[in-house]
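Fresh eyes needed here. I'd like your take on this protein's tokenised backbone:
***
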Amino acid sequence: MRVLSANLGFPRMGANRELKRQVEAFWSGKVTDSALLKVVNELRKDHWVLQKNQLGLDIVPSNDFSLYDQVLDQAFTVGAIPKRYRDVFIKNDDLLPSALEGNMLSTYFAMARGYQQFPTEGSNLPVIDLEAMEMKKWFDTNYHYIVPEFDPTQQFKLTCNKFLEEYKQAKSFGIETRPVLIGPVSLLLLGKASPNSPADFAPIQLLERLLPVYEEIVKHLAEAGARSVQFDEPCLVQDLDSKISQSYHEAYSCLSMAAKKSSAEPIKIQLTTYFGNIVPNLAFIFPNLPIDGLHIDLVRAPQQFETVLSAAEKHPTLQLSIGIINGRNIWKTDLSAAFDMVKKAVAVLGTDRVIVTPSCSLLHTPHSLDAETELNPDVKDWLAFSVEKIKEIVLLTKAANNGIDSIKDELEANQRSIQTRRTSPKIHNPAVQERLKSIDHDMIRRRSTFDKRWEKQQEIFKLPDFPTTTIGSFPQTGEVRKARAAFKRGDISQEEYNKFINEEIKKCIQLQEKNDIDVIVHGEFERTDMVEFFGEHLEGYAFTKNGWVQSYGSRCVKPPIIYGDVYRPKPITVEVAKYAQSLTKKPLKGMLTGPVTMLQWSFVRDDQHHKPTTQQLALAIRDEVTDLEAAGINIIQIDEPALREGLPLRHSEWKEYLDWSVDCFLLASCSVADTTQIHTHMCYSDFYDIIDAISCMDADVITIENSRSDLKFLGAESFTYPNEIGPGIYDIHSPRIPSKEEMEHRLKEMLKRLKRNSIWVNPDCGLKTRKWNEVDLALKNMTEVAKKFRTMGYQV
């Protein structure tokens, strides 16, 4: 008997983002579905071989791979395909279950991205215009999942056998895996009622109908020889109604029975939680939930260890999976401290009942440090990406089974790194620490109330009703990326690069003026990413060459690393903003990223609380705001899309977080005169949960995602907003171009809740991922709708 090592999920994109490139080639029609799936199969194989044969993991996951999103995969698997997609793509249900190919693949991507078909004149093809499904943040991460839709009349059916094919594929290579599935209760809790469902309908009411499909999944896996299956139930770390306890009992009693009936050697059921503390919901699990294993996140919630360990001890056959390697951040683990937790678990449960794992799926960390040849050696020595984290897991497991001396050399090297980082002068800057002490109440409030500021701003800007703007970024074309890469390689000079960027800015402003946008942006062509760009100009940040993580679909981001105290050495955006403003007589927005988003979308230092780090970021942004205003830029947008994302998963912890995070936004924005208009932007979260806190940010204008979620933000019963607001009028994460009629409908719905002189007209988010022709047509429709509403005088 021995302690086992395991992984809960591996990054999908590949060491060099192979999946991203192949999926996007498929979307653009450059490769067939069979060519796409061939690359996918090879990539999965490489990941299994890497984890099992090269790194030495005992338990390797399968079905953690996804072409877009794991929640969409699970909804698709159980047949939760909304009728609007099924009617277009799936003509014969008798063909199911099926592999994810052909029409099934078209259906899948239509659900994720939307789909449009406008036949040429004379064609017999029908017009098809399908919007994408809603997208939301995955708990408090920057990963986005597709929100399942459930209808009261929903009938579930095993629709896709991806989970089985991937298990069999790994087995054909001689690798036994543990399939990963979103658990039935979390799948329903993460979903939403379909449009026009009764007000009293909740998807969890469908559990009894859903469970037979999960039983079928267990049966198929058992027949194929699977020894265990991982059911992810992350909702167990949230505040849950006590009635949900019965749902968990019903679900896992059913699955346990299915596992026992499925084969002579029952397949083991592991319940997996992460991102928080399960102790408040521990009664949902013990004493009556018939599971074989339980995973807990001891990085985010180490305080639950003793309680859960004590509960597990009373169940002599239960294995406890201890998540002691951080699956969401990139710092090297203190192996000595982690081994103390392993020893404690083994002392209580015995070697055969302990599994060493990351805290959550490694989806949230980059692939490997191998490519980071240009990273500062000191900083690199403090880091561990996914491959390195698995090595840490294997080392700790080896120590548990063979004694601590079996990893003596590795442990000594690890402790040197930990100590060097702790005492490094790179981390601590006395001047920054002193400046934090100077923050006072006057620095976090505007000089006048909004009504007084509004009057002064209107005198200057003279904006019409329903003023139009965009969120900031414009298409980052292949030419832009090529020029940036050439500049970084030294193939073109700074002067040549600046000339290219200026031409892109000019083109962007001309397009906005052609479409009569009221408040112009410069397009952000000089920026790789809204956080990375600013981080590159701040001290205390480090940057990777290949540290990509998935944000949604094929969209990857390369989060910078905050390793020490942060400050701004010199202005960042002022010269570009001045140049852009010189090209137009219309007001131009200075575009900045807010301090909370800079924090949330970076890999953050873990040696201090997030609050002082965010205050440092706020002071750096405040300096930039002050300089922009002095340069004559009198509309400044400070984006905070991650404010809701950082909200703790337990309501009892909300107030503390919201107090300091809102204060940090105010610290960044409140140095300006009344005549300077402060905007902010937020997207892809349930913002109605924190609307009071958003109001306290006191931005003159907030633009907010509203279309992808089908106006849900405005539909909240308690919704009010005291200043000006631009709920997004079309979804930019889909390639489809919205019609004027669609936009008119959304604007009419806004008028049911908002005063006409408070509404701005804008897209859901930035246009970086779109093509120029899509942007041109969509903005043309948008401004024409705004003008129509002005002239027709729409009122509630």
Summary: The domain at 4-193+200-423 is CATH 3.20.20.210 (TIM Barrel). The mean pLDDT is 93. The two ends are 71 Å apart (CA to CA). The first strand starts at residue 4 and ends at 5.
